Amino acid sequence: MKLKKKVEALEPKGISYKKKVAMIKRVPTGISNFDAIIQGGLDKNSTNLVVGNSGAGKSIFATQFLMEGIKRGESCLYITFEEEKEEFFENMLEFGWDLEALEKKGAFVFLEYAPEKVRTMLEEGGGIIENIVLRKKITRVVIDSITSFELLFDSDIEKREASLSLFNILRKWNCTSLLTYEGNPFKGRASSRTVEFESDSIILLYFVRGKEERERYIEVLKMRGTKHSRQVYPVSIEKNGMVVGSEPYFGELEE
Ligand SMILES: Nc1ncnc2c1ncn2[C@@H]1O[C@H](COP(=O)(O)OP(=O)(O)O)[C@@H](O)[C@H]1O
Ligand SMILES: [Mg+2]
Predict the structure, then answer these.
(1) CB of 28 closer than 6 angstroms to any ligand 1 atom
(2) What pLDDT digit, counting tens, does each position of 140-170 carry?
């Protein structure tokens, strides 16, 4: 259906056209104040990259994005090559996110995947993971992180081809996906330019030395089809997850 028709068919009638477009096209991350700077959320069915050093908050960001989906009745998939399930569930429970219970209910799928298996997935053009996505009607996917995925491949050409296949599979699934990348947000971010280029958006998470302690910041580097803020915002990790400050940060960011 064309967007205009879809928008017109939306109930209730009282809501403005612009708001309805946002309801259809945007996928809220659930991160307070962040959705406000990206026109209400990520673009539907887009592939998004979250870049930051170790401890920057990538896994928390990604899980919060899935929790928001679950809140809206969606089914979500978390694929990881690194996180150990029990420990991960325990850490996330700190924020009140009971992934174990959600997994039992079928709303949340956790896949701990050996990187070699990903090779099979790429060769099969989706394989077992695709079956899960279709069967469970998954609409939000997280891959945490694709750094170790890239390490699987030796040459730049192999890395490029593997990344391209991965992005093609993700696009085919009609899911909004979020990939984390462990890297320095100040430098050439993803080691493979393909990952950066193919991603519809790049979100940078900074975890930098402040005067007294490390401070967290967030910045949207690119987001296709979105009039996003070009300012840097402070971030904090609170008892219910990540919170972005409502006012931008105008100071220097030092590596
Ligand atoms: N319950 C919590 N309250 C406040 N800060 C937390 C909490 N849990 C984790 N953190 C902070 O978040 C960091 C880990 O975030 P995480 O998303 O795992 O980072 P990344 O995936 O980028 O390595 C921890 O090092 C700690 O600083
Ligand atoms: Mg992590």
Answers:
(1) no
(2) 999 998 888 888 888 889 989 999 999 999 9
